[in-house]
Amino acid sequence: MLMPQIAELKNLQLAWIKARRGKRCKIEVINFGKNLTAEIQSIREDLLAGCIRVGDYHYFTIKDPKERKICAASFRERVLHHALMNYCESIFERNAVFHSYACRKGKGRLRAIAAAENAARGNAWYLKLDMQKYFESIPHDKLMERVCRLFKDREVLKWFERIICSHQSHADCGLPIGSLCSQYLANFYLGSLDRYCQSFSGVRAYVRYMDDFVCWSNDKEMLKTLGRSINNFVEKNLQLKLKYDPSPQRTHLGMNFLGYRIYSTHTTLNRRSKVRYRRKVMQLEKLYKSGGLSDNDLQNKLTSLTAFTLPARSWQFHYRALSSFVSATIGYEPGESGRQLDQQRAELPFRQSQQEYSGQSEQQFGVPSCS
């Protein structure tokens, strides 16, 4: 039984620590912390009684890089989500395939890009696909059907069902973007697609990051057949739709993936990422000139902004983007920025994934090793 462990005071205290990261200055977090013992005990009692309110979302819209409706749960509900995932994350992890990279410790965006770079070097063709309005289109009944196969604790299933049904985009479909549990559930829902793609004869490499997934091969006709099969599988088994018609492309011409343009020989920022980077640099410069940012705050924001570009060969772009920047005192002198970034990229550590501890390698299946 998982629920007694989830409701333990130590687990709820850990959930509170995770939920407050990056939000310590918010009023609801401060008020929760003032009465921490009573709040934690109240959540424990409500968990065991099954009466915590869920679905109390604050909705707002972002338009970068594209328009999305974000659902921010109340702080009390975020503590509940973290308490659930402290125990349920490992169960989702055991169900995941190696080449799924979203919402997993030791994986993430940088690992997905590195895997895509490795696959691009060894294959002539790729088939890249993603879902149309993925989070908004996930059917509640199909998702709960899969969750019931994974978990056997009735109380845990009841909480997942309440969280899933707390938001609807249309007709019993949709997960709230911005919810912790939604990320894990959305990533889990495409697990059957991972297995279907990897089992298809002729697929030499595969990478998925949430609903963006890519198959590589040296056989164009096989990828055409695979595309038609995936389209049928997605519509019949997952009740989803692909955003575009499947169409294999040549690897050496480049592929847009997670904000980058991945070629068979190198990786650059794609056009949209360059536009966003320049725009944000101009916003920071304007704010700094008006006195709205200190030197230290400016450096922190620039470091965070520039970290996204580390996997790309982009020092010349940074030279042009930062050459007119007013603050040479923060260590971003135009003549050195590219070299600093290249050095940071080379020294960037990766956390080992759970699978790698058991002896699995990062090499794509079907792709010969370079050693």
What would you note in describing this structure?
By secondary structure, this protein is α+β, with helices and mostly antiparallel strands. 51% of the residues lie in helices and 11% in strands. It has 17 helices and nine strands. Strands 4-5-3-6 form a four-stranded antiparallel β-sheet, with helices on both faces. A three-stranded antiparallel β-sheet has the order 7-8-9. It has a two-stranded antiparallel ribbon with strand order 1-2. Strand 7 and strand 8 form a beta hairpin. Helix 8 runs antiparallel to helix 9 and helix 15 packs across helix 16. The longest helix has 21 residues. It is globular.
Summarize the model shown.
With 371 residues, the chain is an alpha+beta fold. It is built from 17 helices and nine strands. A hairpin with a 2-residue loop joins strand 4 (205-209) and strand 5 (212-217).
Low-confidence stretches: 327-339, 349-364, 366-371
The N- and C-terminal alpha carbons lie at a distance of: 47 Å
Order of helices and strands: HHHHEEHHEHHHHHEEHEEEEHHHHH
Which class of secondary structure composition applies to the elements? Answer: alpha+beta
Helix tally equals: 17
Number of strands: 9
Question: What is the helical fraction, as a range of percent?
Answer: 40-55%
Mean pLDDT: 85
Beta-strand share of residues: 5-15%
Dominant shape:
globular
Compute the CA-based radius of gyration: 23 Å
Strand order of the largest sheet: 4-5-3-6
Query: How would a crystallographer describe the biggest sheet?
Result: 4 strands, antiparallel
